[in-house]
Amino acid sequence: MTKDDMVMVPELAPLVGTWRGSGRGHFPTIEDFDYEEEFVVTATRKPVLATSQATWGARGPMHMETGWLRWCGNGAVEWVIAQPTGLAEVSPGTFVDGVVAVAGPVHGTPNAVDVLQVRREYRFSPDQLDYDLWMATEVVPSLTHHLSARLMRVSG
Question: For residue 96, what are the domain limits?
Fold first, then answer.
């Protein structure tokens, strides 16, 4: 069975695969940093893709998250993302011309960090994925650019 057999929504098929590359992070409350990343998008036989992401730097693992990118029709998507730090994003958005753009509130457990909102933009081409992420926290309440990365397709 091929990945195309498993993707229920043809529009999402180009996203399926493993992507690797590097990025740079910054935010007013922390020092700038560089990181490496692997982002995996998997077909599920439903109108949803499973996503997983992990980053690491010179000192080891940095961040990871798991999610589900749901197709809602007519270019509309919803991305639900869970992080082991106690945060969950519920973000509606669009997927148009190879660009996934989502934004939404962040919900946290009682001991989670104070992230209030996240906005993500992923730009897919056949073999390259570029993205930017903005976030708002209780300390920096307006959406502020935090991450940018370039990943290359390594499989899929």
Answer: 3-155
Rounded to the nearest 5°, which phi and psi values hold at 149?
-150, 160
Cβ atoms within 10 Å, residue 44:
14
- pLDDT value at position 1? 40
Is residue 46 within 8 A of residue 8, CB to CB? The reply is yes
Chain centroid, CA 125 distance in Å = 16
In CATH, what number is assigned to the domain containing residue 131? 2.40.128.20
Q: What is the pTM of this model?
A: 0.92
Structural domain count of the chain: 1
Contacts of 92 (CB under 8 A, 6+ apart): 72, 76, 77, 78, 102, 103, 104
